[in-house]
Amino acid sequence: MADDLELRFERTVQAESRIEPRDWMPDGYRKTLIRQIAQHAHSEIIGMQPEGNWISRAPSLRRKAILLAKVQDEAGHGLYLYSATETLGADREDLTTKLIEGRQKYSSIFNYPTLTFADVGVIGWLVDGAAICNQVPLCRTSYGPYARAMIRICKEESFHQRQGYELLMTMMRGTQQQRDMVQDSVNRWWWPALMMFGPPDSESTNTEQSMAWRIKRDTNDELRQKFVNMSMPQAEALGVTFPDPELKWNEERGQYDFGSPDWDEFWQVVKGGGVCNEQRIAHRRKAHEDGSWVREAAVAHAQKHAQKEGAA
Ligand SMILES: [Fe+2]
Ligand SMILES: [Fe+2]
Prior knowledge:
mainly alpha, Ferritin, two-stranded antiparallel ribbon, 2 strands, binds fe (ii) ion, Ferritin-like_SF
C-alpha cells in the first residue's frame, strides 16, 4: 500500500504533473516545502522594511505612490505564501513565532541598510531582478499551491524590477551627484544580490534532493550565471559598472565570467551578524505584538458568529 502511494507520487513528479494538498507525499518532501515556502514568506514580509524606510521621504508624490504599491505587493506575496504553507498543515502563528525567535531564516539581503533613495531603485532592479531569476522556475515547481502562487507573484515582481530601473534611468539623467548616488548604491548591492542565489553548488546541501523532487528546477550557480548575463547589458544601458574586476565576457563559454562573492560575509549575515539583523527582527516582533488586538478581535468575532449559528 505504502509502496503504491510512493510510486504514484514519483510518477506524478516525473510526469511534470502537480502534487496537490490532499495527495500522499513523503514526509521529507512536506518538511522541505514548509521550510522553503516559510523562508520565502518571511523574506517577503521582512523585505518590506528596507524600502518601507523611504516611503515617508520619497522625493515626489509619484515616487511615493509607486513605492507604497510595491511594498504592499510584498505583504501580499507573504500572505499567498503563508497560505501555501497552511495547505501543507503548517500553522501560521507557529511560523511567525519561529521567525521572531530566529529559528527560521529569511533572505540575508534584507539585513543590509538602505542609505539613500537610489537604494530603492537598485533594490528594484537588482534585488527584485534576482528574485525573478529565482522565482520564474518555481512557477513549474512540483507542489501545486506553491507553483500557482508563484505565477501571480512573478507578474508583480516584474513591475518591481521595472519601477526600480526606471527610477535609476531618471537619476542617471540628472546631476552628477545623482549619478554618483546610483553608482555608490550599485557598488553596495551587487555582491549581496549575487549571494541571493545561495552558496555555491559544491556547498549546497539541499539542492540534489530538491531537484529530484522538482521543488527546485535549477542549481544556485546556474541561476547566478543567468542573473549576471542578464544584468550586464542593463548596467551598460544605464551607464553604471559592477564592482568586480573579474567580470568580463567569455567568448568561448558565450557567458560572462565573474568573481566569487565573499562567502564568509554571507555566512556571517545568515548567522545574525549583518548590520540590520537585530533591527529587522525587533521591528517584526513589535508589529506582531501591536497587532495582537486585531487577532483577538477576529477570534472573538468568529466565536460570537459560531454561537449565533449554534443557537439558530
Ligand atoms: Fe515579492
Ligand atoms: Fe518584489
